[in-house]
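Minutes, project huddle
Topic: does the predicted pose make sense with magnesium ion bound?
PN asked that the exact inputs be recorded in the minutes so nobody has to dig through chat later. Recorded below.
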Amino acid sequence: MSADILTSIPLSSLPRISQGKVRDLFALPDGDKPTLLFVTSDRISAYDVILKNGIPTKGTILTVLSAKWFEVLSQKVPGLKHHFLHLGPPKTPGLVTPEEQTMLRGRSMTVRRLKVFPVEAIVRGYITGSAWAEYQKTQTIHGLPAPAGLDHCARLPEPIYTPSTKAELGDKDINISPEEARKIVGDKYADRIEQLALACYKAGAEYAEERGIIIADTKFEFALDEETDEVYLVDEVLTPDSSRFWSKADYQVGREQDSFDKQVLRNWLTANGLKGKPDVEMPPEVVEKTKGRYSEVFQLLTGTSLEEELSKLD
Ligand code: ATP
Ligand code: MG
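Predicted holo structure (tokens), as shared on screen:
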């Protein structure tokens, strides 16, 4: 495994079509259908700001974990369509250089290029974060009436679909009601997105719980295949970047939970008055602890180590 921490992706053989907070997307030569090389860097963002340094192996953890989830969810959610085709770029000779091939190993996947709906399909099984803040003020969650008497981090009677807007780089996502999301994605697709988001959450949460992890909430993205008019699950899936994972053994209602994600980083930023500030560099102990959290969750969910999974790719 390469020990490099990649905060930028050195790939010039393919046209780069966009760069998000964490991923760079490259166009692949036309085959049957348009495809993309979806490359995950080791960049990390917190409070919508990208940190100066990265987390070693994060890009590979997120990529390999997402690939596993596409496989699991395909089996558990009837009729689910998703964008994942295979790990790495297509094996076309000369497509990328040997150095690029090594760099892309484990951190890239070939996916169908689709038209992403501009909403974040958030599903919550537990009440925490911005939903808890809203509930305490108005007893609503994303504008929806919620059961009375919920405690912090309580399990909701049923998982709920609580979308948000999908902000441009540098902006903040805004929580909206399912009705507002319907206006954005259109009547034709709104129900399908909600139904798939809930089904994927339930299937994923059940799978994770059997492995000692509670998925408190998560964000999915969906896209449209304009040729067939079908809704696809896209982006990363059920990773520590897109989800709040809690340890089932340590879970206790009525208090903040320690989560397996960017919690260490968020706590450090808040404690040092650096929340939301640009160009912040994480100290080595924050990097190491965060890396540890990502690795631990990978191991628990997949039952194997990243090294073992990567060795299968050779
Ligand atoms: P964050 O994940 O923190 O919200 P971001 O939205 O900037 O940040 P990245 O994960 O860095 O996202 O970049 C991935 C981008 O690729 C997103 O804009 C996502 O909507 C888009 N995307 C995901 N899957 C597909 C796909 N199959 N076709 C086209 N675009 C896709
Ligand atoms: Mg993203």
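Observations noted during the meeting:
- The mean pLDDT is 94.
- The first helix runs from residue 58 to 76.
No decisions taken; revisit at the next huddle.
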